[in-house]
Structure of N-acetyltransferase domain-containing protein:
Amino acid sequence: MYDRHVFLLQLSFDTTFIMLDTTIIDAVITTPRLKLTRLTRADRDSEEFAWLHSLYSDEQASFWSLGGKTNSLDESAAKVKRVLSSNSQTSPSYQYFHLVHDIEDRNNPVFVGTMNLKAVENGGLILPAQLSLTGASEPGVLSLEVGYGFLPAVWGKGYATEALDGLLSACSKAKEALKPYTKLYVQAVVNHSNLASQRVVEKCGFTYLGDFVYEGEPVFIGGKWREKDTVQVWGWRSCE
């Protein structure tokens, strides 16, 4: 997915993915202003689904999302099913999908967006090997993608940066959850026009690796259909 305050992260090499023990990394991550709560299901009549529909059906929040905004509850339900499902039945995947709440008013937390970290999807954007951090494809390295989205009402407050930094920090500390891997690599692919997300990944310690020009089947993103587009590739890895 490409997103506006939502950026797509893809892998450029083959590896074997595992399902990490989700009991090891905290189900709830808190930062000074935010709470990230891991989501594993969102039934159609649930509060969680209503929150996600409000995000997915918002034209501004979905501007950089492939396909744009959803236009019905059914479309939102289909998207929820996609983002919460595992990547493959034959290749177990590692996935964290978090709801993000503003908790500055501790008595009245407010849903503001989502933060997602997961293994790359089969059939995703294939990047050349040179657009990876040195050592990213070595044995013992777990490679993931990340995406996020926030409601327009909270843009400009630094929530995306704070939430992403909090999630990466939690993953870095959960060394037991990485076994048999010993290092974590996250790669971000940000549309060249998505300046907000470029600033977010840079602030969170990602390294700019270069540009990639996509040419292929038309995709709807950024308000129009595109057969050719340029994205920036960024990489991040946990401390050893």
